[in-house]
Design a protein that fits this description.
This protein is of the alpha/beta class. The chain is built from 9 helices and 9 strands. The strands form 2 sheets. A 6-stranded parallel sheet has the order 4-3-2-5-6-7, with helices on one face. Helix 7 packs across helix 8 and helix 7 packs across helix 9. The longest helix is centred in the last third of the chain and has 29 residues.
Length: 310
């Protein structure tokens, strides 16, 4: 059911020299996903424009680092052949009316979003909690077809992809209804350094969502295919808020916010103490969590006190 498609060849920064590296790509949202995609695609020679809804200094810094063009959200998609939406899902309805009107007629819109009712920011979206795939909801808000991609891997993996054919190369699932649009996204996934796997149409994109076997797990092509097939459509209680009171949701949000404040501080401390990149420090912390012998809170408290992993 799940197929490997769109893999490229060697390495570019030579992986695909002279081909498919001059598209106009607009990125809305320059956090860890959008920002690292901007870094990758500018390296490939794509003409990248970036915009966000705040943090003008971070946007300016990213533009200086990568050579990407600064733009407003209203204008960023002008002439774009690919538009990547990488903002919190609750902000999708507030995107400016007509923000895609000046994009290329056959523009491919990529949704990198994941819905979390408690953890960051999203609040309860009833349609999603009743079973509507997250990217189908996004599609309904912007009134354009979307492809779901780049959502199901930890952000740090976007910083060190490897050429096609490299043993152990990780794979990423891609879901969408338009085969021509997916073919373009497969090539972009390959350029970022992953083997793309066709995860079916957008109605199947729930298989890529948080809590599913493929989500944020490092897998090769076979592993991604197996994880997609093993997924169940039910949402876990940690990803469902519609049955809870506002007070309980607020308390859960505050608890999660406190946890992630410690988490991000611990990542930065590990990076500074070991002269690591933030990406390397974050992965090291995740690998420590996966051992399962201590709670994440205990691990974070140790890092904050000792500035190292135990």
């Amino acid at each position: 059911m799940w197929s490997l498609l769109g893999s490229g060849t060697a390495n570019k920064p030579n992986w695909a020299k002279g081909r498919f590296n001059n598209m106009k790509i607009a990125i809305i949202g320059t956090g860890r996903i959008g920002g690292n995609l901007a870094r990758q695609f500018t390296k490939w020679g794509h003409a990248v424009a970036i915009a966000n809804s705040g943090n003008a200094q971070a946007l300016q810094n990213l533009a200086q680092e990568t050579g990407a063009k600064l733009a407003t959200i209203q204008d960023v998609a002008e002439g774009a052949e690919v538009v990547i939406i990488s903002i919190p899902i609750k902000r999708i309805p507030s995107l400016p009316s007509g923000f895609l009107d000046k994009a290329a007629p056959s523009v491919v819109v990529i949704d990198t979003n994941n819905y979390y009712p408690f953890m960051h920011r999203d609040g309860v979206i009833e349609e999603i909690e009743k079973g509507l795939p997250e990217s189908r909801w996004v599609e309904q808000q912007i009134k354009r077809p979307v492809i779901k991609a780049f959502n199901a891997t930890p952000w740090y993996n976007l910083t060190w992809g490897v050429p096609a054919g490299t043993p152990g190369r990780l794979a990423l699932p891609v879901a969408g209804d338009d085969s021509a649009a997916k073919a373009i996204v497969f090539k972009l996934v390959d350029q970022v350094g992953f083997d793309p796997v066709d995860a079916g149409g957008l109605d199947e994109s729930w298989r890529l969502q948080p809590g599913k076997p493929v989500y944020c797990v490092d897998l090769d092509v076979s592993g991604v295919q197996q994880a997609l097939a093993a997924a169940s459509p039910e949402r876990g209680p940690e990803l469902t808020g519609s049955h809870l009171s506002k007070e309980v949701i607020q308390a859960a949000h505050e608890q999660q916010s406190a946890f992630y404040e410690k988490y991000f501080k611990a990542c930065l401390l590990l990076a500074e103490a070991n002269d690591w990149t933030e990406a390397k420090a974050t992965k090291a912390l995740h690998l420590r969590f996966e051992k399962g012998d201590k709670s994440p809170d205990d691990i974070l408290n140790f890092v904050l006190e000792q500035q190292r992993l135990d």
